[in-house]
Design brief:
By secondary structure, this protein is of the alpha+beta class. It has four helices and eight strands; from the N terminus they run ααβαβαββββββ. The protein has two domains: 30 residues; 112 residues, no CATH class. The chain has a four-stranded mixed sheet with strand order 1-7-8-5. A hairpin with a 2-residue loop joins strand 3 and strand 4.
Length: 151
C-alpha cells in the first residue's frame, strides 16, 4: 500500500513537471518569428560551391521547390529596419549564424521562407543592399568564386 502511494506521488509530480514545461513553451513562443530554412541554405551554398563543375549555373527554382514569385537578395549587414522598410512590413526573421547574403522568398508580398548563403564566394552585379529577382530570372552564374545574375 505504501509503495502505491509513493508511485502515485511520483507520477503526479511527473505530470505536473511535464505540464509546467508545456506551459512554459506555449507562453514563451513567438509565432511571428521566421526561422531560416537550414536545408535550403545548405543546398544553395553547396550548389554555388559546385557550380563551376556543373556548367557554372545555379537555378534557384530547382532548389526552392515551393510557392514563391520573387526572391529578395539582401546584402550582409543590412539592418532589420531597412529590410522591414523594403518589405513594407516588419521583418521578423531570426538572425542567421553565418551572416552571409540573405535570400527572402516572397509570394504575394509576404515572405514565405528565407535562407542565407553560407559560403565564401562573393555576390557581384546585383543592386545593393537589395536586389529583387523574379522566379523565372533566378538563375545565377558562378565563376572565379563570384556569383552574378545571368540576365
Amino acid at each position: 500500500m505504501r509503495m502505491g502511494r509513493v508511485l502515485a506521488l511520483v507520477a503526479g509530480a511527473l505530470v505536473l513537471c511535464i505540464a509546467g514545461l508545456g506551459l512554459a513553451v506555449y507562453f514563451t513562443r513567438d509565432e511571428d518569428n521566421l526561422q531560416a530554412d537550414n536545408l535550403l541554405a545548405e543546398n544553395f551554398t553547396k550548389a554555388v560551391t559546385l557550380a563551376p563543375q556543373n556548367d557554372g549555373k545555379v537555378e534557384l527554382p530547382a532548389l526552392a521547390r515551393f510557392e514563391w514569385d520573387r526572391v529578395l537578395l539582401v546584402q550582409p549587414g543590412t539592418s532589420r529596419a531597412a529590410i522591414s522598410q523594403r518589405l513594407g512590413h516588419e521583418w521578423t526573421g531570426i538572425d542567421t549564424v553565418d551572416g552571409g547574403d540573405l535570400l527572402l522568398f516572397v509570394k504575394d508580398g509576404k515572405v514565405v521562407r528565407f535562407a542565407d548563403y553560407r559560403g565564401s564566394n562573393t555576390f557581384e552585379g546585383f543592386e545593393r543592399p537589395f536586389d529583387e529577382i523574379a522566379r523565372e530570372d533566378a538563375t545565377f552564374a558562378v565563376r572565379d568564386r563570384v556569383v552574378r545574375p545571368t540576365g
